[in-house]
Amino acid sequence: MKNELLDVVEAAERIGRGDIMCIAGDEQLLLQLPKGRWIGGTTVYFVASDGGAVLRDKLFCTTLQARRAEVRYLPTLSLPEIPAGYIDGGATLILVPAFSTAHARFAVNGPGYPGLFDQPLLGWVTGVHLDELGSRRPKVVNGATGAVNEDGALLLHLELWPGERAELDIVNIFEPDDAVTFSFPVGGFAASRAIVEGAEVSFGTFLVESGADTRLPLIANYAGAHVNVSIRDIDHRTGEVSFYAPVVPGVEYRLACPVPDYAAAFARNAGGRGAAQFSCNCILNYIHGDLEGRPTGDFTGPVTFGEIAYILLNQTLVRLDIQAGS
Fold it and tell me: Which InterPro entries match (predicted)?
């Protein structure tokens, strides 16, 4: 696996020689690329070797060493068919446009799709510059056909070489604060009520009165894995809190502990790995962690509006490593 920041000409040369690629960049650059074995998503935020940056003249290209690749687009209503394209012993990359119907439906219903967890599924939610929210739509670009979509899911199904295996992992720098636990009687991308220490309260009021730092996520424990749900906004009139990923009713959540140094925390959790892995990092980490110009260890890749490691994640770094079998 190889990660590179390339201009359009260089990326086109890689595509022309048949490389299998996942490409991130500004829409105008993606539209200049020739057809081939690649998928693309819009973003102008990246973490490069010298730190976070906004780039409109370069594409972040991950070249994947695989025996075979199939590019596949699914409209929103066909999202439950994602596992039907899995190649035995392989892995699948997925791109979904932010704020689309597919984004919402995958977030809520994806964990229930039959067979979804049968092989590593990872990817990211495409975006645009924050100043362009409302004026430009995040998109996915099908390298095989040239089609551009604002909804649905774009998939790259990989068949690995014999003896290789794909390892999917997340790097979550947050730890839960055990002081208070809470749950939600109703799930979804917003919640007005929560059950805090056994009592039902206004969740927005609870966050304000407890002095919670809303730049930090809520954390749930799923079989030992910490899964974040990031806070988008609080409606102080109604007490409703909106999220970047859905909360699940009955699941126990905690607030996250503060992280003094985001960049250092990512570098520390990388464990010396990352240079030869596919990875993506959340736009909220980029903003709240002030990552512009600050390296995060060996991890480089697109900065995204959500990460996917089987399910939708927030404020998390997702990585894929392909290793030779033991």
Answer: DUF6976
